[in-house]
Amino acid sequence: MADTLLPDDPQTVQRLDSVACLLEWMRSMPAPTRKRFFGALAECSDAIQQVVVRLIVVVKNPNTTPVERQRALMTIADALFPIADENGEYGLDLVTSEAGAAAENPSLAREVQKMDTQEATFAQRLREVMEAKRISQLELADRVGCSQPAISQMLNRNCRPQKKTILKLAEALNVQACDLWPDIDVAEMLDAVASFQQDDYVMTDAEARALSDTSRPNRPKIQAKSLPTRRR
Amino acid sequence: MTDHPHQLYAIEFTEAEQVRLVGFSCGDEPWSKHVTEWILGSDVLESMKRGTRVWLFETAQAEIVGFGSVGTSVWQWPPPKGERTTIVLIPMLGIDARFRGQPPDPDWRYSRQLMSHLIAEAQRVAREWSGDAEKKPSWLVLMVHQDNARAIHFYEQCGFELIPDVLRRQDHKVMKLWIGD
Ligand SMILES: CC(C)(COP(=O)(O)OP(=O)(O)OC[C@H]1O[C@@H](n2cnc3c(N)ncnc32)[C@H](O)[C@@H]1OP(=O)(O)O)[C@@H](O)C(=O)NCCC(=O)NCCS
Question: What is the ipTM of this complex?
Answer without folding.
Answer: 0.96
